[in-house]
Structures are given as C-alpha cells and as structure tokens.
Amino acid sequence: MTRPRLRHLAFVVQDAKSMAEFYCSQFGMDLFHTDPDGSHFVTDGYLNLALIQQQLDGDVPTGFNHFGFEVPDVAPIADRLTAAGLPTPALRGGDRPFAEYRAIDPEGNWFDLSAHGFLPPGVEQG
C-alpha cells in the first residue's frame, strides 16, 4: 500500500441488527463483529460498514458519522495533519479492535486512521 485508502464508513442507526441483516441479505455482505452496545460491523471483503447503534441517552443523531483510512504508518500522516494546522490525531482508547486514531478534517468531519486495518484481530482483510 503506497497511499492511504478508504476502508471504513460508519453510520449511526436506530436498529443496527436489522440494518446488518439488510446489507447481508441484499448485498451479500458478511457480519464480522458485534459490539456489546449492539453496533454491528459488516464487510464486502474490502470496505467495512460500521452500523453504530444509536443510544437513547446519547446526543448523536442517526446518519453519517465518520470514515476511516488504512495507512501504512500513522505517524507521518499525523505529522502532516498537524503541520497543516489541524489538531494532532487522538489515540482512541478503550477496547476498540479497529481504528487506532481519530482525526478531523478542516471542516470538522471525523475520520479514523489505522495501520492495522478495520477488522478485528485475526479476521483477514480482503
């Protein structure tokens, strides 16, 4: 891989299980992970779709949430973003098996950066 590649899109949805079933049955996608909060993650073997379960006690509306780049190395990308006047990408904490860093573009859109990809450890990327 010589340049960053889009590998991940995320939407907040009202019923992640039903949405995952829709994409699997209608487009042949495969479910590869379910979070304890009910979020479901499906893939076509190349692009992963995160269906984030909306939380009633949260303030995140349904719809597009963020996208993610797979990169050969996060550090040079982070350096370029910071040099361009953007905040330094933040390490994502917790038990997230996917993206390592969260960043924002000049208009405030969230995106993830990952050197190891967007599938859980042990699941092969297409």
TrEMBL record:
<dbReference type="InterPro" id="IPR004360">
    <property type="entry name" value="Glyas_Fos-R_dOase_dom"/>
</dbReference>
<protein>
    <submittedName>
        <fullName>Glyoxalase-like domain-containing protein</fullName>
    </submittedName>
</protein>
<dbReference type="InterPro" id="IPR037523">
    <property type="entry name" value="VOC_core"/>
</dbReference>
<dbReference type="Pfam" id="PF00903">
    <property type="entry name" value="Glyoxalase"/>
</dbReference>
<feature type="domain" description="VOC">
    <location>
        <begin position="5"/>
        <end position="116"/>
    </location>
</feature>
<dbReference type="InterPro" id="IPR029068">
    <property type="entry name" value="Glyas_Bleomycin-R_OHBP_Dase"/>
</dbReference>
